[in-house]
């Protein structure tokens, strides 16, 4: 039951903003499992599963299949580029950015094919600006990633995007942005980590819990957000939550629950090397 809950949560994380083609039940199941394996850094076993939905025209599956192929090969192969292009043709901005990258090894090897990277970048920026003007926070994040300025990330965060809020808090924490009063930076970091957590983003919850812990926050509040993050499927939080329940150690004063604590710890151990799900059981 724990395993099913965790995998379901991982699917929800990956699918929350995706655009899906009309898939049959078997295609959907393959897609979901492939995305979970991808999330666990299993670039190999995820590919045949993602291929099922990608071939059926699912844009998200096409993008993640291309990513899995690229990561398993260390550069954008002809096959990876094919799927990036398929996703990009359906309007996937992240696929367009990947196709526009001049740092990929395929450029150095002279094996890149199709539309030039500069053309893809131009298209990505044009579409992203159009969507951002309509309030699309994902497009704002893409503009930030495309080095169009921190202001776009700030707009996405202000627009309620919990992922952007988490990233912005981290950027402020690392020294980005300008604050006249030094103490305001500290307040902004806390504000955006908290907003991300309250927005339901599991990694944001974990980051907020960690921020509170490192800044002598209330233990009960730290424990609350760690638990919420674990329940949301964030693997690192599941591991930390399990060890605290088993009191190995218990930094957050949870009441002991050895069965649940060791059960969660065992579940995490079933993810082998980089998160690969074990075949057995």
Computed Rg: 20 Å
Contiguous helical run count: 16
Mean pLDDT: 87
Helix content: 55-70%
The count of β-strands is: 2
Return the structural class. Answer: mainly alpha
Strand order of the largest sheet: 1-2
Question: What is the overall silhouette?
Answer: globular
- Write down the secondary-structure element order: HHHHHHHHHHHHHHHHEE
Which stretches are low in confidence, meaning pLDDT under 50 for 5 or more residues running?
Answer: 1-18, 272-281
Question: In what range is the share of β-strand residues?
Answer: under 5%
- Termini Cα gap: 13 Å
| Biggest beta sheet attributes | 2 strands, antiparallel
Description:
68% of the residues lie in helices and 1% in strands. Helix 3 runs antiparallel to helix 4 (59-73), helix 8 (117-133) runs antiparallel to helix 9 (137-145) and helix 9 runs antiparallel to helix 10. The longest helix is centred in the middle third of the chain and has 17 residues, at 117-133. It has a domain at 1-17 and 25-88. It has 281 residues and is an all-alpha fold. Keywords: Signal. This is Sel1 repeat-containing protein. InterPro entries: TPR-like_helical_dom_sf. Residues 1-21 form the signal peptide.
């Amino acid at each position: 039951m724990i395993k099913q809950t965790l995998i379901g949560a991982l699917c929800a994380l990956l699918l929350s903003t995706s655009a899906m083609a009309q898939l049959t039940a078997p295609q959907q199941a393959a897609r979901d499992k492939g995305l979970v394996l991808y999330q666990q850094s299993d670039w190999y076993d995820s590919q045949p599963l993602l291929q099922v939905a990608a071939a059926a025209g699912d844009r998200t599956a096409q993008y993640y299949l291309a990513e899995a192929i690229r990561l398993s090969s260390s550069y954008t192969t002809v096959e990876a580029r094919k799927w990036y292009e398929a996703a990009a043709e359906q309007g996937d901005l992240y696929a367009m950015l990947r196709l526009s990258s001049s740092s990929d090894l395929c450029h150095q090897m002279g094996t890149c094919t199709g539309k030039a990277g500069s053309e893809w970048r131009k298209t990505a920026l044009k579409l992203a600006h159009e969507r951002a003007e309509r309030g699309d926070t994902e497009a704002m994040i893409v503009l930030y990633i495309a080095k169009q300025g921190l202001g776009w990330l700030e707009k996405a965060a202000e627009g309620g995007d919990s992922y952007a809020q988490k990233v912005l808090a981290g950027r402020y924490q690392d020294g980005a942005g300008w604050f006249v009063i030094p103490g305001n930076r500290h307040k902004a970091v806390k504000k955006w980590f908290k907003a991300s957590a309250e927005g339901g983003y599991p990694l944001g919850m974990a980051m907020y819990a960690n921020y509170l812990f490192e800044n002598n926050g209330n233990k009960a509040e730290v424990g609350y957000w760690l638990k919420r993050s674990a329940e949301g499927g964030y693997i690192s939080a599941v591991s930390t939550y399990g060890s605290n329940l088993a009191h190995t150690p218990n930094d957050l004063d949870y009441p002991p629950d050895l069965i649940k604590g060791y059960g969660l710890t065992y579940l995490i151990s079933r993810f082998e090397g980089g998160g690969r799900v074990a075949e057995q059981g």
